Amino acid sequence: MWVNIAVSLFNIVLDALLIGYFKLGIETAAWASVLSMLIGTLIFLYPFIMKKVALRFTKPKVDVKEFLYVIYNGSSVFLGNISGSIMAIITNGFLLYYGGPVAVAAFSVVTYIDALMLPILSGMVDSILPVISYSYGAKDYRRITQFFHLTCRVGFVLSIVTLLIMVMFPDFLVGLFSSTSEGDLIQMGKIALLLSAPSYLVNWYSLTVGSFLTGIEKATASIVVMLVESVLLPLFLMVVLTKFMGVYGLFLVPSVGGLGAAVIAWMTWRRCVKKEFNSFRFGVK
Predict the structure, then answer these.
(1) 158 by DSSP, 3-state: which?
(2) C-beta separation of 107 from 97 below 8 A
(3) HSE toward the beta carbon, residue 94, CA cutoff 13 A
(4) Closest CA to 192 of 247, 127, 152
(5) How confident is the prediction along the chain (285 residues), in pLDDT tens digits per residue?
(6) CA-to-CA distance for 36 and 11, rounded, in angstroms?
(7) What contacts 76, CB < 8 A, 6 or more positions away?
(8) What is the CA radius of gyration of the chain?
(9) Against a cut of 0.70, is the pTM above it?
(10) Cα distance between residue 107 and residue 196, in whole Å
């Protein structure tokens, strides 16, 4: 954790020096990122190379079948990252068509806030996966359920706090990314913020379910949840909502799509765990 924090801070300092102080241009931001990550990687490799930890680098023995299964089981995360980039391009295209550059700038306020919140939720569910996988191997389904409920509660609390901040302080949040002279941007940014804010009531659940399904080796179900949440529902809603509401329909996509994705995630989780978790009740109490 501390190395990652140090790498991020070093990246910021390098950006300030290369771009702000030496005036070397925006392209040097790439060099700053590469250099800071390289230093972080070397620090991480040091204890393994110097044999200061239990794990060691050895000659690999690759089981092709097992290797392919590992890739398949983790494919939902990979596809989720790829689809996020693709959907960002498509969303910007819709925003430009229906609202112009102002709509793109207004919706960027939402994406900036999401970029702060999503890593917190992702870090939480990713950090718990080793425990889930270990418990699944030991067939300790009660422990998996306990962690699922705990993760859901924490995710819900974090999301509610974010929602309240967005609803109570929209002017402040939009003001962070615009000047007082940009009246159209401020107004549209506030609308985008308030229409998309309800998505935080449910988005945490789909993320949690998708990660837990990966942890218990339900790769196909995890892929389904990811595709519905990240691609299928957003695309469908973009087309439908813009027909009736124009650009404001795009601002509603995260909230409406998040609700639909949460319902499908709940149904998928219940169906998957019932087959294997015997007489317990899972997913919801």
Answers:
(1) helix
(2) no
(3) 25
(4) 247
(5) 899 999 999 999 999 999 989 989 889 999 999 999 999 999 999 998 888 888 888 888 888 998 898 889 888 888 888 888 899 999 999 999 999 999 998 898 888 888 888 888 888 888 888 899 999 988 888 899 899 999 999 999 999 999 999 999 988 888 887 766 677 888 898 999 999 999 999 989 998 999 899 999 899 999 999 899 999 999 999 999 999 999 999 999 999 999 999 999 999 998 888 767 754 544 444
(6) 6
(7) 210, 213, 214, 219, 222, 223, 225, 226
(8) 22
(9) yes
(10) 9
| Distance in angstroms (rounded) separating the CA atoms of residues 82 and 262 | 21
Measured between its terminal Cα atoms, the distance across the chain in Å is: 34
Query: 257 is written with which tokens?
Result: 């799509």
Cα distance between residue 208 and residue 127, in whole Å: 12
**Helix extents (H) in the chain:** 2-15, 28-49, 64-73, 75-137, 141-168, 170-175, 183-196, 203-215, 219-227, 233-245, 247-274
Cβ atoms of residues 195 and 249 within 8 Å: no
Positive or negative torsion for Cα 261, 265, 266, 271: positive
Please report the sign of the dihedral spanned by the C-alpha atoms of residue 113, residue 114, residue 119, residue 120.
Answer: positive
Residue 107: closest CA among 159, 204, 202, 178: 178
